Amino acid sequence: MRPRIGFDSRFVVVIVVAAVAALGAALWWHDALTYDVGVYRRYGEAMAAGHVPYRDFRMEYPPGALPVFAVPALVTNGEDAYRAVFTVEMACIEIAALLVGLSLLGRLGASRRHKRVYVAFGALIAALPLGAVALTRFDFWPSLLLLVALACAVAGRSRMAGAMLGIAIAAKIYPIVVAPVLLAYAWRRGGTREARAMLVAIAATITAVFLPFAVIAPRGLASSLWEQLGRPLQIESLGSAVVIALHQLFGVTARSAYGHGSFNLTGSAASIATSVTAIVLLLALCAVWLLYARGPADAQRLIAYAAVSVAVFVAFNKVLSPQFLLWLLLLIPLVSGRRGALSSLLLAVAVSLTVIWIPFRQTALVNEFAPLPSWSLLARDLVLVAVVFTVVPMRSTIGRTARRADAAPSGL
Questions:
Q1: Among 78, 162, 247, 252, which lies 20 to 30 A Cα-Cα from 170?
Q2: Where in the chain are the domains?
């Protein structure tokens, strides 16, 4: 029998999220960082007026993000109205993502307690410590798409999972780090043919989304992608936090500058940190993918290793904006057992530490490298690294799992 959420559960999710989001909006409305909403509004109104993205106006996000920008512009006229509708749109997407997450937990055989904690965690963390950014950024959109892809994979629908992952990648590039895990899952479950079908679905969907703009505005699209991939060391990243700590302790030169839509760290130390974190990121991702591919292919491991892939990308990336924590918010709590509980607790600590400088002390961090936000930043980034090592054991489990390949869930 297929596990079901049930009408009552869905109704409770909507009520809980709506109530907590309203509380968060009341607390954060005047302090929310709304610059990005203004950018989204310009994009949306330009499209509503018939202008073509990448050709007629500069667009910094991938094409899969366009719908969430356009919809509020079609029904509003003015900055405040756009912001209100966009906020409601993101709240609805968050609710949809929570429902998909609950469906996943049902297929994984999670307890009612786990489901309740999942809803409470997602609603409370999004609305309170992350209230300044949660509904003023579009990051719940790719999060929803990624969760749908994982749900399709767990349900045995590999092609649909590939298509949804392709859309998620087209919305915001980061879900690409989950592709090797999903492909390994399909391969272990259905063989080479199933993995090939998923890969084709991923590639075909990405091509379908990007190709029209590549034909109409190749330079604009290429410039958009390069702007994202070529960003400097963002000031909230782990590499930047380490350089700032060295500046505090030993006087290492650290300078901040604004560019690419964020405050970044510049100088020789920042360049070294960028290179080192890039190498660590690549090695860590490869280790995660290899460990998953060589272990049993069960649904709980799929979710755990998908979550840790995203966690690695967040923790060791050269860019770590506050909204990136939303990528983990509805993913990490899906992990079962003690590891899931501990990693969720650590994520809550990381989010809470972020509030120390966002939005109230951001200027002190950027302009002065003030001690409190600087050390809080380093602590937050190290806690995110701890999340990586908590979700799954970052060591080989070949000897222990080789005899249990394709057996029951490992309990991660």
A1: 78
A2: 231-412
